[in-house]
Amino acid sequence: MYPATIVENLPVEYTTLGRTGLRVSVMGLGGGGYSRLGMSRDKSEAESIKIITTAIEGGVNFIDTAEAYKTESLIGKGIRGVPRHQVVLSSKKTPGSGIEADDIVASVDQSLKNLGTDYIDVYHLHGVSPDNYHQIVAKTVPVLEALKKNGKIRFLGITERFEQDTSHKMLEMALNDNLFDVVMVGFNMINHSARNKIFKLTREKNVGVLDMFAVRNALSNRQRFQEVLSHLKKIGQIDDATPDSCLDFLIEEEGVGSITEAAYRFCKYEPGVDVVLSGTSNIEHLRHNLQALQLSPLGESALNRIHDIFGRVDSVSGS
Ligand SMILES: NC(=O)c1ccc[n+]([C@@H]2O[C@H](COP(=O)([O-])OP(=O)(O)OC[C@H]3O[C@@H](n4cnc5c(N)ncnc54)[C@H](OP(=O)(O)O)[C@@H]3O)[C@@H](O)[C@H]2O)c1
C-alpha cells in the first residue's frame, strides 16, 4: 500500500501533480542535464550525494532521474535513510525503435534496484520524438500498464526531445491520446510556446506538468545567451534591434538578484507548471535556486517586456 501523504515541514511550497494526486515540491531536483548532480563535472560521490541530501533538507521531495543519466544509484544512496513515502521518484526509459517488452521490464527492475526501492512513482518514456511516437506508444504502453498493475510503477509519464522538438509536436499527440498522467516539457523565458500548445491541454485533462530547461545554458551563460539571440534575429523570431542586454532590466530595474533567479521565478508562476526541475553540480547554486523558487512572481511589467521580446519564439530550447 502506498502512503497517502508526504511530510510538509519545510519552506519549499508543495502542489498536487495533476491527476496523480501526488503532493510534490514545486522545485524538483533534476538528476540529468549538463550537470548530472555533479557526475558530469568531476565532483566526488560525496559532493553529489550532498546535493541530494541538501535538497531534501530544504524541502524538495521530487527527484527526477533516468536510466540514461546513470544517476539512479547515486540518488538511491542520497535517499537512503529517508522514509520512502517522503520522496517522489521519477525515472525514465529511452525507447529505441526496436524496443521489446522484455527491455522495459528489465530496465524497470534495474532502476528499482539502483534506486533501492520497490516502486517508482512516475515512470516516463524518455525523449520521444514526433516521428516514432505512435510506434513507441503501441509497443510500450501495454507493458507499462502491466507494470503499473503489479505495483512497480505508479503513474505513466512521457518527456519530449525539446532540443529538436522545440514546438512540442510529440507532446501535442500524447496529450490528445491522453495515455499519460504526467508530461515533462521544455518551457523558459526564451521559448514560451508551451503556454498555448501544451498547458491548455494539460489543464483541461488534469495532467501533471514537470518543467525542464528553465535555465540550461542560455540563461546561465551570457555568451551563450548572445549566440541564441543572434540566431533568433537571423531567423526572424525576435526583433533585429533587440540588444544583447535585453534582460538586464530585470536586475537593473526590477530588483531581481540574477538572471537564473528570474528564470526559475518565471517558470514557477506560469499557470499550468507544477514542478520546476533544477539541475546542478554546485551546492551554492542549489541553495540559490531553492531561495529563488520561494520568491514572489516577477512583476507584470517585467512579464510583458519578456513577452514582447520572446513571445514569437518556438525554434530554440535555450541549450
Ligand atoms: N528529455 C528529457 O527527458 C530531459 C532533458 C533534459 C533535462 N531533463 C530533466 O530536467 C532536469 C532539469 O534540466 P537541467 O538540469 O538542464 O536544468 P536547468 O535548471 O534548466 O539548468 C541547469 C544548468 O544551469 C546551471 N545552473 C543551475 N543553477 C544555477 C545557478 N544558480 N547559477 C548558475 N548556473 C546554474 C547548472 O550548472 P551548475 O552545475 O554549474 O550549477 C546546469 O548546467 C534535468 O536534470 C533532468 O532531470 C529531462
Map the helices and strands.
Layout: E1 14-16, E2 23-25, E3 27-30, H1 45-57, E4 62-64, H2 72-79, E5 88-93, H3 101-115, E6 120-128, H4 133-149, E7 153-160, H5 169-177, E8 182-186, H6 194-205, E9 208-212, H7 222-234, H8 249-252, H9 259-268, E10 275-278, H10 283-292, H11 300-310
Parallel strand pairs: 3-4, 3-10, 4-5, 5-6, 6-7, 7-8, 8-9, 9-10
Antiparallel strand pairs: 1-2
Helix pairs in contact: 1-2, 1-10, 2-3, 5-6, 9-10
The structure holds NADP nicotinamide-adenine-dinucleotide phosphate (NAP).
Key structural traits:
single chain, 319 residues, alpha/beta, TIM Barrel, eight-stranded parallel beta barrel, 11 helices, 38% helix, binds NADP nicotinamide-adenine-dinucleotide phosphate
Biggest pleated-sheet summary? 8 strands, parallel, barrel
Kindly, what is the distance between the CA atoms of the first and last residues, rounded to a whole number of angstroms? 41 Å
Helix count, DSSP H or I runs of 4 or more residues: 11
Given helix and strand content, the structural type is alpha/beta
Q: So what's the CATH class?
A: Alpha Beta
CATH architecture: Alpha-Beta Barrel
Summed over residues and divided by their number, the pLDDT gives a mean of 95
**Sequence of strands across the biggest β-sheet:** 3-4-5-6-7-8-9-10
What low-confidence regions span 5 or more consecutive residues with pLDDT below 50?
A: 1-9
Residue share in β-strands: 15-25%
CATH-defined superfamily: NADP-dependent oxidoreductase domain
CATH topology: TIM Barrel
Broad shape: globular
The tally of beta strands, per DSSP, is: 10
Overall radius of gyration:
19 Å
Q: Give me the oligomer status.
A: single chain
| Ligand inventory | NADP nicotinamide-adenine-dinucleotide phosphate
Order of helices and strands: EEEHEHEHEHEHEHEHHHEHH
Total discrete domains: 1
